[in-house]
Design goal:
2 domains
Length: 73
């Protein structure tokens, strides 16, 4: 994948994920209390966590495969 294609297809999405995570943390810190019932925000944070953990597992597998590749001499 070329650098231009990477920036167009991947980089922007990763930047938005990072910004979203920062926003989530900032707003969570700003809450003075939490309700005594489960919220939609909690559901979404849980769903996001599961998705990111799956992505992390796939990334680790990809890195392991990459490390096993022969080095071009």
């Amino acid at each position: 994948m070329t650098l231009e294609r990477w920036q167009f297809e991947v980089s922007n999405h990763l930047q938005m994920i990072e910004a979203g995570a920062e926003m989530c943390e900032r707003h969570t810190k700003a809450l003075p209390i939490r309700p005594g019932f489960r919220t939609l925000a909690e559901d979404e944070m849980e769903r996001c966590e599961v998705t990111l953990l799956r992505a992390l597992m796939r990334l680790r597998k990809a890195r392991a495969i990459y490390r096993r590749k022969e080095i071009d001499a």
